[in-house]
Request: fold
Amino acid sequence: MIAIIDYGMGNLRSVEKALQSLGADCSILSRPRALDRYTGVILPGVGAFGDAMVNLRREGWVEWIRDTVDTGIPFLGICLGLQLLFSWSEEGDGAEGLGIVPGRVIKFPPAVGIIPHMGWNQLKIASDTPLLAGVDRDSYVYFVHSYYVVPDQAEVIAATTDYGIDFVSAIAKDSIYGLQFHPEKSQAVGLKILKNFLNLCAGKQITEHSAFGATS
Amino acid sequence: MLAKRIIPCLDVKDGRVVKGVNFVGLRDAGDPVEQAKFYEKEGADELVFLDITASSDRRKTIIDLAQRTADQVFMPFTIGGGIRELDDIRAILRAGADKISINTAAILNPDLIGRASARFGAQCIVVAIDAKRKGESWEVFTHGGRNPIGRDAIEWAREAEERGAGEILLTSMDGDGTLKGYDLELTRAIARAVNIPVIASGGVGTLEDLYDGIVIGEAQAVLAASIFHFRTYSIREAKDYLRKRGVAVRS
Reply:
């Protein structure tokens, strides 16, 4: 079962439907629940960073998300959900994030032209993360955002995208994944990436079984 | 590189597509969701549904449309037409729409732009502007193009951006339905006046019109209804044409 975190920040239905179309069991959670039921967790979301953190704290999600990550359950942040993983965002008056991935979230400089960065842009895949397995180089995916993440550690960068500047459009670190674009809105390419995530979630179960003696 | 977007627009009334056309292979060509799926397969980058339902249960039909589309179509879509309040916006976004577009309500109640933008994010608030040439400038019309309001379109576009709009959907009323091409001067004037994406609309008859809207009009996206709807051109043909002429489009 895949948990989709509902913390009052936007369109969860599209994520749910995309996962269901891939045959996944998923459940939208508006409160933290016992973690052992879930093989994967998705943090979607659009809207303001500061409001999102307020909502996450109020409902007790912050600890739950940390537990998820500590347990090694695959975790996928989408759009704002990716940004929230970072230490700090300059959006609004500035706000602290979950601090799970060291780095900051900053706004596109005016020099890039039109903000938000909205529409279909290309992925330059930077690592061999299983999340992007089978995704062709320069594939188009759908973006809508004005801020982007700047990880402290270059190793977490899974893909970048060119919008006047090269920004980080996907990260992968242990069991933590993040996408700045919307896979649930990126047609076949997006569904492929979500399918990869589901495979990772299924792999987590296999790993657990292998601990009981199955061959790897 | 960010691709220029091709956006088919569907006029919907009482949950049905207004212009009846033979879409080969669709079970129910009048069903907006069937058409949306068709356009998705063809490679459309986004969709806009313009709801022109007049009856009192319009809100219910719009929400139903948003839900059914989100269930089956994995690309961004916008719903516009008759949206008046924050509650309407919340319900439509929750149902699965990516953006809403407001026109008359934004003029009558400009605070709505800021409140909606603060609440749901600028990225999902599209302000639609219907403009008509008047001498050397363009005047804004409301109520589906019926009422002139004596405001300058460029000025209003700037104000909409300041108030928190994430995108402008600009329709030239002089061009709309004529198949003579976008009002390129208007499109460029607005595109240069704001720092948010502008979608050109109104008047497309040929693929060259799409090219002109992007290259001369400087629009980030081009919207068309008739040429796609009546199958004069497919989305694929439009993209192939634009690509050949050097415009970045998504393959």
Q: What stands out?
A: Chain B touches chain A through 36 residues (CB under 8 Å).
